[in-house]
Write a structure and sequence with these properties.
By secondary structure, the chain is α+β, with helices and mostly antiparallel strands. It contains 9 helices and 5 strands. A 5-stranded mixed β-sheet has the order 1-2-5-3-4. Helix 3 packs antiparallel against helix 4. The longest helix is centred in the middle third of the chain and has 27 residues. The protein is flat.
Length: about 290
């Protein structure tokens, strides 16, 4: 009778390798699932993390790995965020704050920021921009992107702007110019004591390279107007079928057309008010 051999203690060596492989596969598929709905900010973070790891420099608590977010945004600074909220409450419905992957977006809308067809800031707009600028410019050192908009109405033939693209870019530039000249000069006079004591350097916070004016033209409003008109045409076509089938009278048809036309025109006017707008994006990246 053959002598029984004793089995070695512990799992076989192949089991360890197999377990590692299964764990890595699980991690990989969890990563794919997490990225199934692509968010630009999260995708960039994943890309940076993978690049660091593959280059042999993975972040580690032992080596003091750097955070991908170089500086906290205003939402993570309670004092600054509260100041922004106070301004948004004062201008209720006209100033909104939103956190995005690329940074903190402050939107000013439904306000007489510019005169029609003009890039000259109104007194009301300057008053609001002064309040916002003193907070977001002097309490962050991030890049600030300023977006200008225009509605779908073509610029007049005698306008100095060739198109709505030119007009929107000029509007964004007007805001940047206000920040870097008028507001800078005013804050320099108001904080002269801080400047003399070395606590405040206006040239650092109001440096021109921090600001990027960007014209959005009339693309955004055109998209929304197209959607409104497509809905208008669809509803009219459905009602026209009922008219042909004899389900409604000609008078009901005429009343429906008049009502829907007025509703659509009102919505387009509301859109034009909505696109009296300026966006200020506090980017996650620091100014150079």
């Amino acid at each position: 009778m053959a002598k029984k051999q004793e089995c070695p203690k512990g799992a076989p060596l192949w089991m360890t390798t197999y377990g590692d492989m299964v764990t890595l596969l699980l991690t990989f598929f969890v990563l794919l699932f997490a990225m199934s709905s692509i968010s630009p900010g999260k995708f960039q973070q994943v890309a940076v993390g993978l690049t660091s790891a593959l280059n042999g420099n993975p972040p580690s608590v032992l080596t003091g790995g750097k955070s991908l977010q170089t500086e906290p945004l205003i939402s993570q600074n309670p004092g600054v965020y509260q100041e922004i909220l106070k301004i948004s409450e004062e201008y209720k419905g006209k100033v909104t704050v939103e956190e995005r992957d690329e940074g903190t977006l402050i939107t000013i809308s439904d306000l007489d920021i510019f005169n029609p067809g003009s890039a000259r800031l109104t007194a009301e707009a300057k008053k609001l921009l002064e309040k916002l600028g003193a907070v977001i410019i002097e309490h962050t050192t991030n890049v600030l992107e300023v977006y200008g908009y225009a509605n779908e109405i073509p610029v007049p033939e005698n306008s100095i702007y060739q198109s709505n693209w030119h007009l929107s870019a000029a509007r964004a530039s007007s805001v940047v110019y206000f920040f870097t000249t008028e507001l800078k000069q005013k804050r320099t006079l108001e904080r002269i004591a801080d400047i003399q004591l070395g606590r405040f350097d206006p040239d650092y916070y109001y440096a021109a390279e921090r600001f990027l004016p960007i014209g959005k033209g009339d693309i955004e409003i055109q998209k929304e107007i197209k959607a409104l008109r497509n809905l208008y045409e669809f509803e009219l076509e459905e009602m026209r079928k009922k008219l042909v089938a004899g389900e409604i009278t000609r008078e009901e048809w005429n009343n429906f057309v008049a009502k829907k036309t007025e509703e659509t025109d009102n919505k387009i006017r509301q859109l034009r008010d909505k696109y009296r707008r300026i966006d200020i994006l506090i980017k996650r990246e620091l100014a150079k």
